[in-house]
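Note to self: user wants both folds in one dump. Writing first protein now.
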Amino acid sequence: MRVGVIAFQGTVSEHMRMADAVLGSGSALAVRRAEELDDVSAAIIPGGESTTIGRLMRNSGVFEKLKQLGDGGFPIWGTCAGMIMLAKEGDGQMRRTGELLGLMNMKVKRNAFGRQRESFEEELELEGIGEFHCVFIRAPAVEKVYGKCRAIAHLGKYVVAAEQENLLATAFHPELTNDLKFHRYFLEKAR
């Protein structure tokens, strides 16, 4: 199995390191062109800045290809900015910044916990995974899930991890920990 990490910005090398640790060296591929998605069986959209990632994905053709694949059952996981990109709905700030992939039945709020200086870490219980140390950096959050999308972790009034069939989204950054549980969960699901 090979996993592609969308490699325009953000925590690309961190996700690649974690995927290689779970699957074996050389299992992760940095994806910058649409045709590179043909060489992988799952994809991760990393954290970073969603406006920039979205624009670069559209300019490269990765956006349309990933949208088609996701609609067809291809496993995709989005962390932080990646969570925003997967959502069907966003807040007013997100609507001004560009098109979302629109794959997951959820409404996301950008910067739900504040700006960069309000970043924090929290121990949370995640359904199907167990206790996990979560790193939130200028994190979004899910305000609403519907249809087949379901919450797998909450923090206060917000959903911070959600799952919908082949799709997974987290507001936090598992790739910034040394805990492989979340990457293992996604990659086993992708098989």
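First done. Writing the second protein, which came from a different request thread.
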Amino acid sequence: MCVWFIGASSGIGLATAQALHAQGAKVTISARSASALQDWLLNHPGSMAVSLDVTDSIALQEAAQKIIQQNGIDMVVYCAGHYKEQRATQFDLDEILKHQSVNYTGALYMLDAVLPHFLKQGSGHIGFISSVAGFRGLPKSLAYGPTKAAMINLAETLYIDLHPHRVGVSLINPGFVQTPLTGNNDFHMPALITPQEAAQHMLAGWQKGLFHIHFPKRFTRWLQLLRILPYRLYFFVASRLTQT
């Protein structure tokens, strides 16, 4: 199996790429960090690394073609992410648009690059690492949350459209994972897990053929319950989740 991880220089993406490589998969990772890519190649014989900025649609097309020609692609996982706290009282349009470009538009560029290949070969799988922050609006998540909500909707729609064409889709919604993205949070992160634990949850979900993979369930199940609350009750609860 040939798997391409996009945005996997650290965190969940890197840990999952390492786990799949250990199981014998032919893994390619892409990221902006040249040192991270070099470390990957040194420590993972037989793998591949392609430098990539997910906000560059042309570069993403070229990377996809290079990987298809050399290894083929059976599965692509979009791991790229940008996160910075923001409230409406400190509205920063540039930061919001940066979130949109990395977290969502880059995923669209990825689809434009790989979907024709998957449809032509009549198989493939697309994984999106999203977040429970996309379930509903949350404090301090004005820039981040909407991009993850868009990704959740995108994955759901893609599943409906692509299932008849034998192209799988999976949506990964982690809770709090110890990564560089969450390292600057100034609030308590319940049920915090390591990237390696997250990777094992993802592999187990893929093995079961799940569309929605969320973890750790002792936390994410509560977030799923919040999705069905009426607005008046939800706003009361959500406004007290993180207060500073």
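Dump finished. Worth passing along: Residues 2-238 form a domain with the Rossmann fold fold (CATH 3.40.50.720).
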